[in-house]
Amino acid sequence: MDDLLKHLVPTNTFISGFTTSDHIKHASLQHVELADKPLGVHKVSSKTTHNIVKPPPTVTASPNDPHAAWEAVYPEGSINPGAQIPGGFGFYLAGPPSFAKQLETATEAIFSYRMMLQEGWIWVKGGKLPGIFGGVGDLSYACTGGRKDQRCQCFNLRPMWRPEGVGELYAYLPLTAQNSAQLSAVPPRSIENSDYGFSVGRGAYHFTRAVCGWITIAFRVKLNDVGSNNGELQLWIDGESVMSVGGLQLRESADGKIKGMHFQTFFGGHGNEWASPKDQRAWFSDVTAVVLQ
């Protein structure tokens, strides 16, 4: 596999999947247009846009640079898609119908995309980036924003940038002592936030090379067997594994499923101290996913 495919699908074997990248040809990957309907986009934030644009050229142009991308706009003073000044965007993505059907029985999958931040990006205190989600039925959509009710029925895993581009994984998992112990042990620093999610592996990677250049973010999630703490999650940046956690409980029952991507990005946190200090933009492309088992 070439480097782009290795970054988007960092595994040697998989059953099937899809990609929106025009640069990847693989017999087991369905090519899908970067558009809402073909990708099963739903529950779209009504106050923001995710227009498809031609992204700006990178500092070191590559033949594999995306031709089209979703553009996120973070206006000055914006905090999140639902705030008084909406910023970023938010929606859920299940993939094309054939892939979404496979997820109903899948126990392990990888989801990935490429992203780029505008020149002169200002990090402020931090912000969220697209990740993955799952759970039991509609409860899978109710795992973020500090919610504690029914947290045993869902999971949500999204990257987050902190000041100076320090990266972490922001995790909402069932509130169990085992999950807390496993996530707390992830180096170099992990912090349990009693009212919100879990900051996992802060400083394990950096987003600085995403400024004026494309980086690839890939996630692997493996559901635990019901009644066991053998779930797993893994994060790669440009094909390098920067975080791998086992011994987790992602579901209580067989009704807990991998649902797809929570494609959300914004500045925050909560409160004006998180807000973007100027109009800023980011671009997201090459959405890819595969089922491993």
Automatic annotation (TrEMBL):
<dbReference type="GO" id="GO:0016829">
    <property type="term" value="F:lyase activity"/>
</dbReference>
<feature type="domain" description="Polysaccharide lyase 14">
    <location>
        <begin position="67"/>
        <end position="287"/>
    </location>
</feature>
<protein>
    <submittedName>
        <fullName>Polysaccharide lyase family 14 protein</fullName>
    </submittedName>
</protein>
<dbReference type="Pfam" id="PF21294">
    <property type="entry name" value="Polysacc_lyase_14"/>
</dbReference>
<keyword id="KW-0456">Lyase</keyword>
<dbReference type="InterPro" id="IPR048958">
    <property type="entry name" value="Polysacc_lyase_14"/>
</dbReference>
